[in-house]
């Protein structure tokens, strides 16, 4: 378990992490999301004692990182895959880590095998590709067989097979009851891997919730209808008091409607439907919606060939976006 309480980091004028309180629990994969510059790496560095908090506290299984004897046996982390002595072989790099943490030498060969680097164990790390470097960093995190694992952008540089491998590795580590905390910019990957999400924006906590609740609370769900008898269908829906949006190309969208009810209504009026499909936004859309106001670095979309983002109708009910507005108001007081 990793517990943060009021964790805050200020760099001069810049409040990089602002009063974060949350816990990362064992037995599940927790995803850590936020736009560029949100404060994810700073938070992870403070968890590992690499940066001192300006205020607040972070504990690893109830202790500060500095109090842990042989810390690699409590928490293993991949922060920066390039942060290693390139002149050493993969084997020697891991051996140095093992020796400084009271970990038996035999464990080095085990973790090299786990990450698939046995054939290059004696090769110098500076010749490694980005993907091989990631694998070596992951081997270092696994070395002490720790109960807690933390990965910052672990799939960076990995090919599809590597991405699939790390996804299964994280799930199996969590399945063994370990605490797994992982940041990634790849939303589709996060949606497949994480059970729980912690989302931050400009240093603030925006969400600490299950993946399914996050998507439900921050995205629009609607039913898409297409019918060759669209005018008649519109009349029937209006008569039934159902609000419908004409989305163009002959499609109608009903916000929050039940597909069963809409299908039965069409059947009662003997209307032909060519499409009746429930639509749920992706994690990516939910994330974009929640963090829209907290993105520090926007690309310009007014260049030739670029289309501006589509404006979606407002949420039917309060989502995390409201929490962010509240957080800003509270911050301003
Ligand atoms: N050593 C530092 N000195 C000054 N400012 C810093 C320092 N480290 C981080 N920052 C600032 O703190 C903020 C948070 O940075 P951080 O790297 O933690 O964000 P992040 O969420 O990890 O971003 P990214 O997704 O781009 O890696 C940024 O505005 C960054 O410029």
Automatic annotation (TrEMBL):
Keywords: ATP-binding, Nucleotide-binding, Transport. This is ATP-binding cassette domain-containing protein. Residues 323-333 have a biased composition (Basic and acidic residues). It comes from the Bacteria. Pfam families: ABC_tran. Residues 2-227 form the ABC transporter domain. SUPFAM superfamilies: P-loop containing nucleoside triphosphate hydrolases (SSF52540). Belongs to the ABC transporter superfamily. Residues 300-333 are annotated as: Disordered. GO terms for molecular function: ATP binding; ATP hydrolysis activity. Coiled coil: none annotated. Residues 306-316 have a biased composition (Pro residues). It comes from Streptomyces antnestii.
